[in-house]
Amino acid sequence: MARSGATHDEILRGRLALHLLFPKCVAPKGGDKTPLKIGISKELCRRAHEAYPELNLRIIKATLRDYTTGHKYLVNMIAGRHRIDLDGNPADMITAENERAAKERIAYDRRVWMAKRRSAKRFAALDAVTAGAAAGAHLAEAAKALHATAAKLKQQTKSAMIPAGDANV
Questions:
Q1: Predicted pLDDT at 34
Q2: How many helical (H) and strand (E) elements, i.e. helices and strands, does the chain have?
Q3: Neighbours of 109 (CB within 10 A)
Q4: Helix spans in 26-95 (H)
Q5: How confident is the model at residue 113 (pLDDT cuts 50, 70, 90)?
Q6: What is the DSSP letter of 95?
Q7: CA 109 to CA 112: how far, in whole Å?
Q8: How far, in Å, CA of 89 to CA of 11, rounded?
C-alpha cells in the first residue's frame, strides 16, 4: 500500500479515470506530464467524484499525489513555462522557486533510490555469504560423516585382516 493508504491498483485505476475525464490535463501512464495549475485539486476532486462516484476522494487525492511527485512531472517544472488547468488551457506560470523545489525533489528521490539499491546489493551479498556459510556448514557435516564412515571401514578392514587365532596383534 502506498503512503496514502491507496493500493497501486487503485492509483492506476484513478489515473485512468482522471485521464479519461481530463485528457488535455492528465497524461496517460508513461505520457509526458505538464505541470498542473496551483489549487487544481479541489476542482479536480469535485469533478472526478461527480463523474465516478465509486472513485472515492482518498483514491483521487492519492492518484494526484502520485502524478505530481513523479519524475516526468518534476522534470517539466521549468521556470517561465505555463501550468495548465483541467481543460488544458494555460494557467499560472512556473516560478524559479517551483523549479528549484522540483530539482531538490528529483535529487532526493535519486538519493533514496541509490540507498535502496545499495541496500539491496548489501542484502544480496549477505544472502550469498549466508548461503555460502550454510553450504560450508553442510560440507563440514558431510566431511565429518565421511570421516566417521572411513574410520568404521578402516576398523572393519583391520578386524577382517586379523586371523582368528591371532588376537594379540
A1: 94
A2: 5, 2
A3: 14
A4: 40-51, 57-68, 71-75
A5: confident
A6: P
A7: 5
A8: 25
